[in-house]
Amino acid sequence: MYDLIIIGSGPAGYVAAIRAGQTGLKTAIIEKNQIGGMCLNWGCIPSKSLMESVKLYQRITKDASRFGIDGIEKGSVSFNWNKAVKRSDGIVKKLTGGVEFLLKKNAVEIIKGEAKIVSANSVLADNRLIEAKNIIIATGSSSPKIKSSVEGLVIEPEMLFKEREVPQNIVVIGKSPVAVELAQLFGMTGRTVTLVSDTDKIMPKADTYVSDFIINKLKKEKIEILFNVKIDSTDGIYKGGVLNLNGEEIPCDMIINASDRKANMIDSDIAIDVADGYISVDEHFETSVKGIYAVGDVNGTSMFAHVGSAQGLNVVNRLGGIEEKLDMQKIPMNMYTVPEAAQIGMTESQVKDLGVEFKISEFSLAANGKAQTEGSAEGFVRILSDIKYGEVLGVQIVAPNATDLINEASAYMQLESTVYDIARTVHTHPTVSEVFMEAGFDAIDKAIHK
């Protein structure tokens, strides 16, 4: 009898398993594919690795001369997709190997195979009936397949970061930050890219101020965006290298499926409540069956790896007797666009709906010395604060390293800090993080460099 069985070894599952092992719980983790799940193997890590390769390519071809580097002929420099993929594969192998090592180090049994929940306390996997006091479902999510009778036309996420000849005309299906990231990634290699959203928005959970900034950025990069177009099959709309969408003919050699993800449901002999394609959970991430929890993408509360990890840790802590509510609004949202975008807390529209008097304080990277020296002064930090007490209600950042900078805002939010706290926090100079201090001053009086 195990104390805990975890089904799925992505960031939600493996983090929970390692922590459970550290606390002395007899734990097993079941994985039917690769340790590390989607994020480590064909999602977060490979995409960020390829993006860094593309960013370097852009700096060499566009910025080298401006930075005082002579001798680089633009026509002689090209982007080698397959070499970039090989570098990515090496990183993935190192990280997944590290996760497997940590699981074994903390006495977590790794069981390879597909899991089936038999009862509230038992799981069938690898022809074994395994019993446990508690079960965590962490099976993640995936994009619904796009049907196509044309072989190789549609590339599903798990097959994207492979060695291949990358064609010229690429269509990315999706509206999430991941879809935008992929559109920019291929656009920065010189490909012609069209982004197709099934609604009138992209990045729908982002503050409108942020999403509008990114839309304008895409337009400058000549990435066409088609709104309110839904594609679940290419049959009847694709012929001879052309995709016909709403009467518009789009050159298309490859379609990347980055459409909104749905939960990877698990086979179960017992009824577990589901809503809108996700496993329903309460504030403790417990399902309708006592002792069975669901964390990460599979419960639909968020599609971010760090949120899944936080939820997994929260459940393990609860099993250990530590009752603590995870405030989802105080967890950052990262968007790996170019420049990066990130936010935490409430958006402007949410604050307005709350009906409190608030102030918006914004400071541009264009006035930041370090950003200027790096040649990356595109973006801003934006703080929403309560006028009465100065409490920080939300923060939005667009900057090359916004996904790192947002963690400072996360600390402010966790401590219920005010703009006065931000203003009097001395930031080293010159650093990009000084934009926080400036925005804090802007909230209480006037920014120094504005």
List the topology elements:
Elements lengths: L1 E6 L3 H12 L4 E5 L5 H6 L1 H20 L17 H25 L3 E4 L3 E4 L2 E4 L2 E10 L3 E2 L11 E2 L13 E5 L3 H11 L4 E5 L11 H13 L3 E3 L11 E2 L2 E4 L2 E4 L2 E4 L4 E2 L3 E2 L5 E2 L2 E2 L12 E3 L10 H15 L13 E3 L4 E6 L2 H7 L3 E7 L4 H6 L5 E7 L5 E8 L2 H13 L4 H5 L10 H11 L6
Parallel strand pairs: 1-2, 1-6, 2-3, 4-17, 6-20, 8-15, 9-10, 9-15, 10-11
Antiparallel strand pairs: 4-5, 5-6, 7-16, 12-13, 13-14, 18-19, 21-22, 22-25, 23-24, 24-25
Features:
globular; 24% strand; alpha/beta; five-stranded parallel sheet; 450 residues; 12 helices; FAD/NAD(P)-binding domain; Enolase-like, domain 1; 25 strands
Description of the molecule:
Helices cover 32% and strands 24% of the residues. The chain has three domains: 2-142 and 262-329, 3-Layer(bba) Sandwich (FAD/NAD(P)-binding domain), CATH 3.50.50.60; 154-257, FAD/NAD(P)-binding domain; 339-444, Enolase-like, domain 1 (2-Layer Sandwich). Helix 1 packs parallel to helix 7 and helix 3 (44-63) packs antiparallel against helix 4 (81-105). The strands form six sheets. Strands 1, 2, 3, 4, 5, 6, 17 and 20 form an eight-stranded mixed beta sheet that branches. Strands 8-15-9-10-11 form a five-stranded parallel beta sheet, with helices on one face. The mean pLDDT is 96. It has helices at residues 11-22, 37-42, 44-63, 81-105, 177-187, 208-220, 305-319, 348-354, 369-374, 402-414, 419-423, 434-444; strands spanning 2-7, 27-31, 109-112, 116-119, 122-125, 128-137, 141-142, 154-155, 169-173, 192-196, 224-226, 238-239, 242-245, 248-251, 254-257, 262-263, 267-268, 274-275, 278-279, 292-294, 333-335, 340-345, 358-364, 380-386, 392-399. With 450 residues, the protein is an alpha/beta fold. Strand 12 and strand 13 (242-245) form a beta hairpin.
